[in-house]
Amino acid sequence: MPLTNFSRLTKLFREQEVTADEEVYRELFVLVLSRATDADAYTHPAEIASVQAVIKEYLGEDISSSDIRTAALSKLYESAPLHKYLAEVAPRLSRPQRVSIIRGLVEVLKADGNVSSGEAEFFNMVTMALGLTAADAAGLAVE
């Protein structure tokens, strides 16, 4: 199934399924990273390449630049904003899955060597919607 189909994520959100599976995590990972490329209203080519590299590293799959651009502007956002999808699905994902989304997001946001205020706001929104703390986002393990 293509990574940009988002069928499991949409089903989970609309039908209030109780559990999220690995496919939902993968779809959300792609959705967040793709959307990050448009967080500052300018998609730098380095951001697209970074999304491709991060998805390959974390999910072990290749994704085309056109699929990333399509996912960034997905019709999924017409039915609900991203933060609503994240807040709805986050409790059903494991903490390591949520943290990996944030770590991948950091790599993408730093790709062009410049983090804009819009990108920082996007990062904060994703972190909060995933139910993570600043310590989680910074990779600090609390014992």
From TrEMBL:
InterPro entries: DjlA_N (IPR007791), TerB-like (IPR029024). Coiled coil: none annotated. It comes from the Bacteria. Residues 32-138 form the Co-chaperone DjlA N-terminal domain. Pfam families: TerB (PF05099). This is Putative tellurite resistance protein B-like protein. It comes from Chromatocurvus halotolerans. The lineage of its organism: Bacteria, Pseudomonadati, Pseudomonadota, Gammaproteobacteria, Cellvibrionales.
